[in-house]
Amino acid sequence: MSKSTMSARFRRVDVDEYDENKFVDEEDGGENQLGPDEAEVDSLIRQGNLMEALQAVLKNPPINTKNQNVKDRAEGLVLKVLSAFKSSDIEKGVQSLDKNGVDLLMKYIYKGFEKPSENSSAVLLQWHEKALAAGGVGSIVRVLTARKTV
Fold this sequence. Notes:
The radius of gyration is 22 Å and the shape is elongated. The chain is mainly alpha-helical. It starts with 37 loop residues before the first helix and ends in a 5-residue tail after the last helix. 55% of the residues lie in helices and 0% in strands.
């Protein structure tokens, strides 16, 4: 028998470390994420600059934070901006977003579907139609399979 077969070095490798089904929650420093700036978004809505308000509300999403209050506040602010748009301006708003922006918008749309309020479902369905046209089915798949939620 050779000497190398008696070695115990191979036992020091942690095989569980390489298991693809082992889930480790990634900490990305989400504790300091405060979400979109509410004062800036409100002032843009009052000025009637809805395109800029949409960009501002999607600029700093609280994806990595575990603070549910921050996520709920951001969701309410996004719904407020989406409700302020006229039906004819929704398509222009969606077209002003890049691919990641459309995916983030879809995340907020589906989050809004989870907790419907008065008239929010109709507004969200209009936005969903336009976001689906811009992002395609791939956008829906990316949102539904994403581990990090808004």
